[in-house]
Structure prediction request, 913 residues.
Amino acid sequence: MSLRFLAWFAVGCVFAPLLPGLLMMAKPALMPEIWQALWADNQWSGALLATLNSTVISVAGSLVLCLVLFCGLWPGARWRRYAAQLPLLLALPHVAFASGFLFLFADNGWLTRLCGISFHLDEYGMGLGILLALKESWFLLWIASTQLNYQTLSQQLTVARSLGYGPLQCRIRVLVPSLLPRLKWALLAVVAYSLSVVDVSIILGPNNPPTLAVLAWQWLNDADPQRVAMGMLTSLLLVGLLGCFIVLGWILWRVFRRAVGRFSGQRHLLNIQPLASSLGLVMTATCIAALAMLVIWSMAEGWFYPAILPDGWAFSGWQAAELSPLGTTLLLALASSFTGLLVIILWLEGGNPRFDLWLALPLFLPALPLVAGQYRMLLILQQDGGWPGVIWSHLLWVVPYMLLVARPAWQQIDPRLVITARTFGWSSWKIVCLVKLPLLARPLLAALAVGFSVSIAQYLPTLYAGAGRFTTVTTQTVALSSGGDPQQQAIQALLQMLLPFIMFIITLQVGRLLGRFRQGLR
Amino acid sequence: MRLLTLLLSLVAIGFSCFAQPTDWDSLRQQAKGQTVYFNAWGGDPAVNSYLDWVAGEMKQHYGVTLKVVRLADAADAVKRIQSEDSAGRKDNGSVDLLWVNGENFHTLKQAGLLKDGWAWELPNWRYVDQKKPVREDFSQPTDGAEAPWGSAQLMLIGNAQTGVKFPRSAPELLAFAKAHPGKLSYPRPPDFTGTAFIEQLLIVLTREPQALRLPPDPATFKQVTAPLWDYLDQLHPLLWRGGKTFPPTPARMDRMLADGELLMSVTFNPAHVDNLIDRKQLPHTARAFGFAQGMLGNVHFVTIPANARAQAGAQVVANFLMSPQAQIRKANPAIWGDTTILDSATLPAPLGEQLNAQKPAHLQAVPYLPEPHAAWVNALEKEWLQRYGAK
Prediction:
């Protein structure tokens, strides 16, 4: 069977339900009365403002943080030390981090207890934006660290230094222009995620009105068909917003290119390494403090404002906590990430990169209409509530993320190696297995780890495709977040964190192990 | 064989008035070995551990495997049942038993998605307190399509230690808010408890209480609800964060009360305070109280979708949930503290006293006020969101 056929078949299986989902979304756009209802609804403008605010803060913030750290630290021992932390920071699920962040910075959070600083996190989506900026900057840095070619760039940097340009100047002229195009996909995913995130917005976002994504989600869950249609239309408008962000990003990129291309010949010796070091430290410290909050809350017995520490310590919360969702989550995530790995390898080899954008669509669209489309399909096929159905529903998000991580590295394979292999008369299969896969072991492992954590984070697909029968740590955490027991919420958040952490550590170690045996991978 | 079953069932139907025990026995036989998927809101650890106990009992005494599907919102399951129906799944549905409130019941009943007429045939129905609204849900007749499980009443929670005098009427509440600005709030509708709070205010404030027994009439809606909006317009600037934003759930308000951020929380469970005190979430001085005139009360139910797979098993579970043994345990504040729907006078001697002994200790009881028609929920939520849904 030809590779091309297999690639299209695998991808077709995963993406076929996208069509009913998209059709479902598009229908209300043709109904003027739904537009009217949306126009008359007074929550809409506030929700739009909150969404725009949080998205701009998230995207601009994460990019700035990423660039500052990168320009300040790369290359060198400091960067290597920081990059070693990245997988752990990245493996932290959004929901768990948001819970810890809330315990830290909320009105009655620990910081207020400690030094009386209090700010309303939820107003105008500020807290949501800041949290996402932090979290997504690690994602961007991780992508950057897997994509950059050390050899060429460090040579170019040396040349720039030898011409007398300062450390920051060289990096802006050399690193940033080659970094940004490679971050294109990751940035798009950040925009789409920030626009359409539901679970984190529920925890940290504004609620009167909520963000557009949460509003759409509430409407889609409504029994009233008109509200459902309004939810669909709002989802569609999120896609439109994404388009605006793409155009804006493209314009800014052109402006930057023009500015960078202009040389005045002046040399600035500015070095932002101390700034970057301390920024990196603050970011990591925030993360550790948020985690510490979760750990303390999970063992706290009676902890009320304004006490700085709990009245007592007890493991009763852990004893009462349920552990069976951990097993379900692990099996689901392993199955979907390994299936996803197979699909992306087939696609990278046999598929056409021109269609990558289409495959990445699920990352740029609000999840809910897609989940609804998938669910309808599963109902017709009588496959809802079973393992294959749930794994399949996760793949729609797992595959694009894995592709996003693996594609640029695959593109960078030296074609001369492949041509050489061809001259030996090797078949495409043999070249994939003996040349490409070993070369790309590291990016593929990274893709696997990302796929695994994406699968763990899935809430809506697990709930719908699993007919509510699959209790994962994520569905458990979200179900508990509507309650008022910080202890159980902290415990579930910690459990949700455990699995991706272990997976990232494993892939990192495997990557290192491979590097020990193959010089080129180091 | 199939013919025989048909004949037997015809006979069973013919003699159903006399043959209830036999019917029930055959239902129990049928239920043995079935797996029942019980979809229930899973936000409260007390409810979750009670349901774990129920699952153990069902397995041990009835051979029924009870799988509890924990939902963040019962509307998720309603949506699923609707989707299954529109996809043509008339049997083999994924929900066998569902914990519902009035609005969701109303939606499913209207669409004909529920199994009718089974609840009143259950053996434990004879213990049910007929003085409570167990045959109607939000002014809509249940037709035996749902079995009562517990009852609830909207209550306010306050801490007596703070030395404040609890407001016992709507004007007193407003005066209280003036005396303590920024220390009151209520959950943001469409949260179930938040909407109930609005309904409570509407019941005590409106000049036309009869209108609430029927679905809202667009012609008179404005007139009936005008006193409510006037009241809220005065109240909101005095609320937490100036009424610009509201807590998402009553559970979050409990926490804010414990932290001293608010002076009052609301609950739909009169024994909730005892439960919170037991779990060390509130001090011993906390009290549940209500308006002297009465507070909104209702009964919550379990229902069986028409397309349920394990219908016999679901009925056996529903019957067990109504049993004196299960109700006594459920009413215990240390376990859950949900008010019973049984009449303790009809129970055999020791059980009746045991049930009475479970009454919450930290509660100042007030009369039940009947709920408005289910359609009011949607109308009030819509109007509330239009007026206050954006700061």
About this structure: Residues 225-261 of chain A form the longest helix (37 residues). Chain A touches chain B through 51 residues (CB under 8 Å). The domain at 54-297 of chain A is CATH 1.10.3720.10 (MetI-like fold). Residues 200 and 416 of chain A are 46 Å apart (CA to CA).
